[in-house]
Design goal:
2 copies of one chain form a homodimer. By secondary structure, chain A is mostly helical. In chain A, about 65% of the residues lie in helices and about 10% in strands. Chain A binds a DNA duplex through α1, α2 and α4.
Chain lengths: ~140, ~140
DNA sequence: TGCAATTAGATTGTACACAATTTAATTTAA
DNA sequence: TTAAATTAAATTGTGTACAATCTAATTGCA
């Protein structure tokens, strides 16, 4: 039953379910993030800002695996929403320091329910979720 | 050490490594797909077309988890490249039938090396890859 | 029959995502 | 010490992604 083109079948790919799952899971966040008036990418950026308060664009990009081409407009949007401020560093004017505002910190409490709500939409067993977490981190290290 | 905001830390998310891994792995395809002059999304669309030869936009979208908003421009691009043709169905004019061309089929042989080359860039053990494959399909079913 | 509901694609608008290039600041090394 | 190299962001251009809306074809049913 095997033919030479089997390796090109969608069902034999590892990348495709990764790509599709990521999209579908991110979509699950939408109704809950809509309540906070932010997108998924803005949400993960805020996660880093909530934890660290202040951070360069470059460093933020290293956390999120995103470059300035994505982050510059995204951070301008977050600034417009009043969630962060953007200012050049005094020590090194090349660096742009992003700081979370009081309003940004206030959003953290509203966001607290999001992970729970999303988990409620995804009926993956705890053991599978843990195993997946481990494997994804392993994969992340070798790409 | 635990605090009430732990659930909002990037490191405690399952979705984030999924999102980041998907992006990083898709990026690995780029140099090899550049040789075929197609993008990753175009590649997975061609995978379905290579296997099925003819297909409605709707059905193709069900395979790829993409809607007409994404597929319409993508298929127009593939048509411009000469890899597929697009034509309304005679039986039901609402349906647009996508068909792979000879040139499209010829690309299949050039693509044959892609999965191997990408696998060569990702040093994940075979057992882990298999386990990840199973878990992603399990996750796909419950989102 | 004939009109409302449904369906398939296309379109519009917003938001990433990233490669490639540009600009400005800083560092380095001759 | 100053010109070259490096660095951090911003910009530009292309290509997804997707929600919401629109259009046209078909179906269902009163």
């Amino acid at each position: 039953m095997a033919d030479k083109y089997d390796s090109l079948k969608l069902e034999n790919q590892l990348c495709f379910p990764l790509y599709a799952c990521a999209k579908e899971v991110v979509k699950k966040y939408k109704p809950f993030l809509d309540e906070l008036d932010i997108t998924y990418t803005q949400y993960i950026a805020m996660m880093v800002m909530w934890e660290h308060t202040k951070m360069n664009v470059k460093e933020l990009g290293e956390y999120l695996f995103l470059d300035s081409g994505t982050l510059t407009p995204l951070l301008k949007t977050l600034e417009k929403k009043g969630l962060v401020t953007r200012a050049r560093s005094k020590e090194d004017e090349r660096n742009l320091v992003v700081s979370v505002t009081d309003e940004g910190m206030a959003l953290r409490d509203k966001a607290l329910e999001v992970p729970k709500k999303v988990a409620g939409c995804i009926q993956l067993e705890e053991a599978d979720a843990k195993e997946l977490y481990v494997l994804l981190h392993k994969l992340m290290k070798c790409v």
